[in-house]
Write a structure and sequence with these properties.
By secondary structure, this protein is an alpha/beta fold. The protein has a 5-stranded parallel β-sheet with strand order 2-1-3-6-7, with helices on both faces. Strands 8-9-10-11-12 form a 5-stranded antiparallel β-sheet, with no helix packed on it. A hairpin with a 2-residue loop joins strand 9 and strand 10. The radius of gyration is 19 Å and the shape is globular. The chain starts with a strand and ends with a strand.
């Protein structure tokens, strides 16, 4: 059964979402404060979690900081890539931007329809599934050669390929993306952006195109958040090899792989 964690201090919203989840055949765990979240995520009850719905404003903390803790707390590392959808007030656009930059996968502005939130969750899961079903071979330049193909197994199709920027590996089971034999510590959104660039090596993507590639419900007013994600991706790549320029900025156009 699909298991959702809701962190929301408004009982009316919680009850409405609980009814909607029940109709979907989902189980929902409801917490009304920030301090209970990490202990829950460390418990056996968290092993089957499929997503977290996280309110930005909580009585004992804020959802943005809590998201960062979830993404970076070592003893819940197995859940660091779990999809997180923020609930925000309609006027708090800065919170939406910060939420996406801090590792959130999507947001829903209050007031919202529970059916819309369910649709957003399904869109995230569908996108993750599509990423795990990509073609076996990728190349990132015209003269790149496939380094290795890893056979199908129960965990899904692992991918290995070589390009001018080095050797890449992607494992759909745990969404692990490796470069030069080093695992990249990326958020869900950052990983999707990089995979999107790798799948179309000769294309220059605008910010709006990359935002659409990582969300089925993009708010193009927030397209500038892509810049922050690209900066974070470059920072991760530099920890592996700072001498290789993997992503190129095309002024006035967007981003692409080097060379485009």
């Amino acid at each position: 059964m699909t298991h959702i964690l809701l962190v929301e201090d408004d009982p009316a919203i919680a009850m409405s979402l609980k009814v909607t989840c029940k109709r979907e055949g989902w189980q929902m765990t409801w917490l009304d404060n920030a301090s209970s979240v990490l202990p829950m995520l460390r418990s056996d009850d968290a092993k089957d979690l499929a997503a977290i719905i996280l309110d930005v404003g909580l009585p004992d903390g804020d959802g943005l900081s809590l998201c960062q803790q979830i993404r970076h707390t070592a003893d819940i590392k197995a859940l660091k890539d779990i999809p997180i959808v923020f609930l925000t007030a309609r006027s708090e656009e800065v919170d939406r931007i910060l939420g996406l930059e801090m590792g959130g996968d999507d947001y829903c502005a209050k007031p919202f329809s529970p059916r819309e939130l369910v649709a957003r969750l399904k869109a995230i899961w569908r996108r993750e599934q599509l990423l795990s079903q990509q073609p076996t071979h990728y190349t990132t330049s015209a003269d790149a050669t496939v380094n290795e193909t890893v056979a199908n197994n129960m965990s899904g199709q692992a991918l290995a390929f070589e390009s001018q920027s080095g050797i890449w590996h992607y494992q759909p089971l745990n969404y692990s993306l490796m470069w030069q034999s080093k695992k990249l510590e990326l958020s869900n959104t950052e990983r999707k952006i990089l995979l999107t660039l790798l799948q179309a090596p000769n294309q220059v993507f605008s910010r709006e195109q990359l935002l659409s590639a990582v969300s089925d419900y993009p708010d193009h007013r927030l397209a500038r958040t892509i810049d922050s994600h690209i900066k974070s991706i470059r920072k991760q790549l530099a920890t592996v090899d700072a001498s290789i320029d993997v992503i190129h900025t095309h002024r006035g156009l967007g981003y692409g792989l080097c060379p485009a």
